[in-house]
Amino acid sequence: MNGAGHVRYTYRLRVSSTGLSWLGAEWARCRWVWNECVAVSRKLNGLNRPDGQKAACGPAEPDEMLTQARQSMAWLREGASVPQQQTIRDVAKSRAKALKDIGAGLPMRQRAGMPRTKRKREALPTLNYTRRGFRLKDGRLHLAGGLVLTVVWSRDLPSAPTSVRAYRDSLGHWYASFVVEAATEPLPATGAVIGIDWGVRETATTTSDEHDLPHAEHGRTAASKLARYHRMMARRRTPKYTPDSAGYKRAGRAAAKVSKKIVRQRQDTARKWAKSIVRDFDHLAVEDFRPRFLARSTMARKAADAAIAAAKTALIEMARKHGRAVHLVHPAHTTMDCAQCGARAKHRIPLSERTYTCTACGTVSPRDRNSARVMLVRAGLNPAGADLVSPGVC
Ligand SMILES: [Zn+2]
């Protein structure tokens, strides 16, 4: 995880009404390509080869499919080929991620899902362009196919971008998100290491008392507001295939506004916390937890998972920027292992049990603190460098 890597710089776009219909048409074509790829991928999942291996899905076949589709369909050909090809890459990437997670034996809740069909009503438009699909000229963004967009340059791009994503959010605003090579700003070495465990009550419990991240309470009023708008939307929902009512749309916009505010607050908290971690430690051993936001989970669980996701992203970005090493630790059994002697508990410890008691060596410590120390051990970092409590003391 060393080195600079890439970062995103995002700007608002000003789009004319002609631009809006242009982007809408491009998105319709990319959405069609996405859904075709998903259909092919589903078919492949069902097919097992005679030797028992899963059938492969390289990009060659979908590329071929796209070429043929563009030849036979004038509508598809009217759109630029770059975002359509990029759509194929994105489906393949998302599929590969899902297969990798299954292969790694991640628990269901943390696995990336297989790419799913994008529905016109629900999916938000997003178009991806590689370097040959866009250019910046006189401060304006030129997209393949001829659309020119006005960018609101709220801050300077540090270098020439390698790709751009044009997308619309749930409020109807359009953005351009550029990928640029990140410049590193190394910080002085501290000689200290830290282990970080994610959780519901505390977003992050660490091996250092001063660096825990409590679950933010500020989202609570916003969350109840959001729930109210969601109930309003549910009441005003019209039957399938009929247009949305004005009241439904109003409630939808209000809900989008509130959730946007929650996201911003969460990011702000996450960045401040990440900054303090990166300032004080050279090596970070972090649980590689990947929340999935399943529909069945509760609102509180979803909020906790979203806070974890924001903190983890901020931490990785901040560490990259300042040249700190991040060690991602596989989450399996991290709550069951003893950080002191390495013994594994025979049974899963219920979430209500807040202390970890090792049956092998007798160490007693707060459950999450033990998990944070397990991260250090698993990452091969010397636990002596962290705040360790001697056996049986706490
Ligand atoms: Zn032990």
Summarize, please.
Pfam families: Cas12f1-like_TNB (PF07282), OrfB_IS605 (PF01385). The chain is 40% helix and 18% strand. By secondary structure, it is α+β, with helices and mostly antiparallel strands.
Reconstruct the topology from this structure.
Blueprint: E1 6-14, H1 17-46, H2 60-72, H3 74-77, H4 81-103, E2 126-130, E3 134-137, E4 140-143, E5 148-151, E6 163-168, E7 174-181, E8 193-198, E9 202-206, E10 213-214, H5 219-236, H6 246-280, E11 283-287, H7 299-321, E12 325-329, E13 355-357, E14 364-366, H8 367-378
Parallel strand pairs: 8-11, 11-12
Antiparallel strand pairs: 1-5, 1-7, 2-6, 3-4, 4-5, 6-7, 8-9, 9-10, 13-14
Helix pairs in contact: 1-4, 5-6, 6-7
The structure holds zinc ion.
Domain Probable transposase IS891/IS1136/IS1341: 178-289
InterPro entries: Cas12f1-like_TNB (IPR010095), Transposase (IPR001959)
Keywords: DNA recombination, DNA-binding, Transposition
List keywords for this structure.
394 residues; alpha+beta; Nucleotidyltransferase, domain 5; 7-stranded antiparallel β-sheet; 5-stranded mixed β-sheet; 18% strand; disordered C terminus; binds zinc ion
Bound ligand species: zinc ion
Tell me the domain tally: 2
The span between the termini is 34 Å
- The ordered string of helix (H) and strand (E) elements is EHHHHEEEEEEEEEHHEHEEEH
Q: Major beta sheet, specifics?
A: 7 strands, antiparallel
Overall outline = globular
Strand arrangement, major sheet = 2-6-7-1-5-4-3
Number of helices: 8
Domain Cas12f1-like TNB: 313-374
Keywords: DNA recombination, DNA-binding, Transposition
Family: In the C-terminal section; belongs to the transposase 35 family.
Protein name: Transposase
